[in-house]
């Protein structure tokens, strides 16, 4: 098949390289001309394991083409995937500006029957608004489908090659057949449904994952009050196959471009459908509280009892990890940004290190120092705070770290170090719920 993918971001590039890898001819469009120029040379705009190799191979084998021109690609395509961003507005609802503009441009260029498939996460029922736009411009036959994306940054290629499920939301038999054929080489359960159910599956899935994380964080708070060890508690709870270990871990809270925005958008949408999603409001509140909880742990570990004014004035803090999770350089809605901003407001001096996202972070947090190595980051600091669970942080040489730090203090926001080992070496160790 010939396919156009609109939006060369995380979802668009992974979708385009997946379908090219499966033998289709794929055009990938973005309005960002510099991004397209780089992609033509095989330069990927962000860090995602294996993605650059897949893209370079498909470019070389003439299965994947990058362009900023809708007229060059859409008229030749049987399926157009919309993969543009749907970021949050101030009130939590999804901002659909990019989506409407992409759909309008696609509609102007349709030729022959085209299946417009929405991969972006969009609010329930919005296909009506999209249909109204397409109807205004389209000169040929088209149909709609909703096929939400479930990839995780950091493991996006492997997730798209081995999906748990492929959701096909459409009321057209022809569209269903085309999408089943396109996905035929891939494993995973097929969920065939209407578009609204497809959109709801996406919001419900991300909200459920966020709920598991906030549940684990609530357990961690209870463990701190009762003296239990949350690591053992989640191990015991998650061992039940009905519950599972995945996403049942405490930490500094969930972040990234999906969970926070999708939880808020789901709350906003359900309110519009006259349902107060109290459970999700609590999930969001617990997540927000993780930042102040970590800052309190930092104060406590330094012996600061006064919670007023700039009570961290002059304290040198090493922040280990900036990306919202390991194996990505994505800083969108990363907990590190909120934590660092609070610490800076309280007067702390920050030196941060992330194996992949220092450069991205410099644009978001220009007022802090950056180190290009873990040990340089902690050198002569009052304490080290682990914010992202990069594997190399779990393997830190604690004896070396003790010599470099001014004070042997660790606040482990991801519970990746062994508390006993750290304490035996003379560290003051504070984790989450243990
Ligand atoms: N990132 C993830 O992990 C993930 C996972 C599943 C679903 N999603 C959803 O997929 C959608 C895309 O997310 P993303 O992270 O890939 O976004 P992104 O910000 O990485 O990429 C979006 C791209 O679309 C381009 N764009 C915007 N308007 C355009 C237009 N009119 N024509 C062509 N290109 C245009 C932008 O320049 C950008 O490169 C969102 O709805 C998101 O919620 C994301």
Can you put this structure into words, describing what you see?
The protein is an alpha/beta fold. Helix content is 44%, strand content 14%. It has helices spanning 10-21, 33-40, 51-60, 70-73, 97-108, 127-137, 156-161, 173-183, 195-226, 230-238, 259-272, 278-301, 335-345, 358-364, 374-378, 391-394, 398-404, 419-424, and strands at residues 2-6, 25-29, 64-67, 79-82, 114-118, 142-146, 165-169, 189-193, 316-320, 349-353, 369-370, 383-386, 409-412, 428-430. The protein has a six-stranded parallel β-sheet, sandwiched between helices. Bound molecules: nicotinamide-adenine-dinucleotide. The site of nicotinamide-adenine-dinucleotide has 27 residues, from α1 and α5. Residues 6-12, 29-32, 35, 83-86, 98, 101-102, 105, 120-121, 149, 151, 153, 257-258 line the site of nicotinamide-adenine-dinucleotide (NAD).
